[in-house]
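Practice set, problem 2.
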Amino acid sequence: MSPKYSLPLLTAAIAIALQAQAEQVPQLETVTVTAQYRAQNAQDVSISTSVLTSDNIRQQDIHDSHNIALQVPSVSYAEFAPGQALIAIRGIISADDGPGMDNSIAVFLDGIYIGRQAAANFDLYDIERIEVLKGPQGTLFGRNAIGGAINIITKTPSAELSQRASATKGTYNTTRLNGYLNGAVADNIFGNLSVNLRKHDGYTQNVLLGVDNQDEDTLSARTRWLLQLDGTDIIFNADYTSDKRGDMGRTPIINNGTYDYVALHATLGGGENKTTSPIDGFSERTAKGASIETNTQMSGGKFTTITGIRQTSSEWAMASIGAPFNGGYDLDAGVFGIDVNDSIDESIDQQTFELRYTATGTSTFNYVIGAFALRENTSRVEQFKLDRNAISTGQVTLGNEITDQNNTTRSYAIYGHANWQLNDAWNIVFGTRLTRDNKSITTLSLNCGQQENPLVANYNLCDSGGGSLGVLQRTFAIDSNHSWQDISPKLALEHHTNNTMTYASISKGFKSGGFGGAPGEEQTATTPIKPENVWNYELGIKSDWLNNRARLNASVFYMDYTNLQVVHFGPSVANPEFGSFTTTNIDSSTISGIEVEASLLVNAFFDVHGAFTLMDSEVNNFKLETFAGELDLSGSELRQAPKNSYSLTLNTHLPIQYGELHGQLSYHHKDEQISDYINQNTRIEALDLINAQLSWHSPSEQWQCALWVKNLSDKRYISHAYSIGPGVIGIWGEPRTAGVTVTWLPR
């Protein structure tokens, strides 16, 4: 062959070979989100978003906010008690869970706002994806979300028959049974059903009483139905969860100097994941809900209505110190001693209604307009009890104080959000939200030692006749009412190329004021807490590289915060020596940071995913009255705002003679975090966790068998800490757990 033709032919052959190889190499999955009520590639949405797909959820066993926080570095999680979770996104958190306060992080389940953390449930087997939206979200959702939103989307029923069942057995007597069924019951009616059972023995033991703490017994079920009519789809959802657990197993870790509880804890046999409280606690909660959604196609768009109801009941009682109060015990005589028992009985009834119109308009302009209404009633009885435990008497109450609060929140809003394509490269996004919130609360505060007061004498839980700690020294009954309103705009500019989208955005977030939980005096009960406001300034990029085998997303943000709501324990007018709980506002604070997420498909058998958040937070103006006098906390970092957080996940897929092996290794890190402003020795420890999984998939993919281990290094760590009179009390995180899961997917 002539050299004249050999070089072009060789070049063409190489190009064809390279193209064939490229076609064999998989590309990164296109993740579809509906954060803007349109099916969009997540790479085209100018919101800092982390999306957990159904595969992520299943492989990482994501069933609660703790597991979300491991995967999304911008999210921080701590748990004071089951149903009393402390979730932060970008350092924004609600620490007061009283009935007259709101959450900074909004949770939506298939479009239904879940107002209280006790009502949130992620343990559903049919989740399609979880969208974590960071920063203020107000122009697209029914309820304003000042810190961010967790948007949970379950699988839509379809005509195709699909089934899944799995069983797990592991350490700590772990048992999990899961089932899912989807299919058609008529030509235009489709439904699905998922059922889940999760159990394990205690991760923490009370060595003084010989009982388990931090166990789990959860049953959840969900069904979803789709009725397709001419031009209209009707979706019905219903879910139910029952969750029963033991005490949290709290442990003294730092003394305040009045008594050496840390040494006492060690003397009685306490240590890592071991508590020595003389009393035992429990947690029981149920959550259920139903909703109807209609979607009617119109000539220029879609008209949607969503009506939802939710009911949640939560009751728990937990030991507060983790060791006998002032060392008062005599084990030889069968006397275990006294501990402070924090007891809560809460019920929540919520109704929501939302209507919106999603207009497609033209190819260059689309918009969403909507209206939202919420009525939420929360009744909460909280007791601060001194409980004594002995073999001869059992666990009895020596004295108690009670706060009985009933709050009704009514919220109304209208919102609009538009996308305008200026040309092939530039888009402008703009919107606004008008919100009006009203809260009406009744508060009954009782010190049960004041038996001469008719309010005490006539209240059925005030039967001890003894004194208590004086957290609630005054007895009173009082009503309070207040309203707040706000306008929250958003503006963003997007620049699109074939593989890259950059954006700049400005948005305002708002969270209404409220009334603090467990007020110790009339003034605290009737003084409204100021509403929060934040302006978020953000620059971001979303990009795909190497023929869609690499992805790099990053954002830089700066948040100017006003009146961040915080709760602290300190001196009060009625009890300057011991103190009570008070909710107040940080006048001003700032949060800035960098978020990076990256993915790389190295080849057909190996991929890497990583995420990193660097955050700096600072209190600019905040003064508190403490037992030592006025304390200026300006310059402090915000609570649950770790400076560095990151995760790294390695996945491999190896074909073998009989099927395929899948391996996953993930590493998660969060820096140390403060969890109390006054006593800044109250900290959540830095966390480093390694999880691993190895699974076999049959050739037909009908069977899967996975060996998994969490907390591979068996790190023992404090997952949450709080400060009370005796000192700093810690809650232990989960130790190493391991097990095997078998999954059946009939074809």
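Problem 2, part (b): a different protein.
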Amino acid sequence: MRRFLAGTTVIALLTAACAAGPGRPARTPGAPACDPRMDAAFTAWAAAGFSGSIAILKDGAFECRAAYGMADAAARRPNTPETVFSIGSVTKAVTAAAILRLADEGKLSLDDRVGKILPRLRGPVAEAKVRQLLLHTSGLNGTHGDDYERLSPDEALAAIGRLKLAFPPGTGYVYSNSGYTLLALVVEHLSGRGYRGYLGSAVLRLPGGRVAGGFWDGRPAAPGPRAVGYLDDGRPGHQGGFSGPYWGLEGNGGLAMSTPDLASWTHALFTGQVVTPASAALAARPGWPLGDGRSETPGWVAYDPSLYGERFLSAAGGGGDVGHNTVVAWVPAQRRAVAIASNTASNTASNTAGITAEALLKAVGPALLAGRPLPRPPAAARGGDLGAIVGTYRLDGGGRFQVAAEGGKLTVSAAGADAVRALTSPGEGGTEPGSTGAALRAHEQRVLALLNGQTQEGRRERASLEKAFGVVSGLSLAGTITQGADTRTYVVLTTGKGPVLGWYAVNDQGGVQAAEVPAKPPALTFVPSGAGRFRPDDPTGAGPHVEIAFEGRRMTLTGARGAAVAERSG
């Protein structure tokens, strides 16, 4: 059983033009050339692992359309600006626009109770207002179904009605995929054309009549060649073909576009060409404060000027079984839309660590805003003979590391809570020093409560696990890591089919955000950093901050949590 839920946290912006190609600059015929220095920098990022597409639009005209890397590594088919990517949770921005357009048409008010619109809806969420669903303040917590579970509209409505609320509507915030599926059910009910029909005929239609994208699974499908996504372990992701019904993902994920289409649609939205100018202003207006200069808006996150000196809005989607990551930003003062998509995971078991769209933006965004030359990924030092250090290394606490070498890089996998902690010292994406231990322990307790069936969602999850693996007679913690925006707690389940390793990411209310069962042990790829030392193969610096060194039969890992020494045993 493998499951990811659509959703991710946005930490990115881009406000200038760029171009690149698979391994070298490759401009689209008819597209304007980009600054050669920027072009060279992005080519270096492509060589370091970014694979995807970039589109930048200002005042309705493209400054740049570009692509890097391979859309299909096995077929050696390169990405192009026309390559289609799953946009994941960016779908929520489109669903929000559909709701705003229905409000423009007088078919609903944002202050309507959703139970008034959908009389068959039962449960406490029926009292929530449409506005609260848009801002993730309805209190809905947990999931109504897996991404690729066959759910009809009626089944989804019933499942959402059974979910409990984490708090009374309007009194708190919890990110909810189910809330946006409920909004899609509102569109299905009120539009007269169904959710998919309304998006295709009205919401995704660009000035001039062309439709921006479509769906990854089912119809109307996004036209154009598709990128193959690559998951954490390097395997190809889901490439479409799920026959539906689609109401596990409908409204909260599932759309697909090329980056030029996504940039064009974003420009059309915020310039009042998809919804009225008043509704476009509402989509851009901060609605619920998230802290650190961020606020939730309908379908977007607004960033105030205190963060980067420029106000902007952004939405992102990633993870899931597809293996894509997409981010889009709108900078109102510049009337600029930027869309970036990638098709490689941020950490793979192979020796080709990918750079996601969000990670790339985080690495280059500050320099772009300041008008400085773009940073380039650091070069790896020469590593010498790595075969001599391959093997198994054990900690005194019982954890162990498996070290493998290929292509001048090391892959180190961890088994056991103490080994996981040593390998995954928090990076910039983790919690702040000083609070890390408490935050990770709290996450572990929420995962244990979930899997011990102490919550409604936990009982549902436990039943799903036992259906797949037999009776679960025990579980133990196997370590907790931060990866990007996720905190992942690994657990070993004792089941009727033997021990099963998996991981869970849950929110502060205990709702599942993402999960993978079974899962491979956490692993990092390292490159030489000189003098017999190695650093993570993570040019953006967003992952764990740990360095490893070898001396005789000892491997020393040094990170924010201190040093750990493991002895070679094989």
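Answer key, part (b): The longest strand covers residues 474-483. Residues 1-32, 347-352, 427-435 have pLDDT under 50 and may be disordered.
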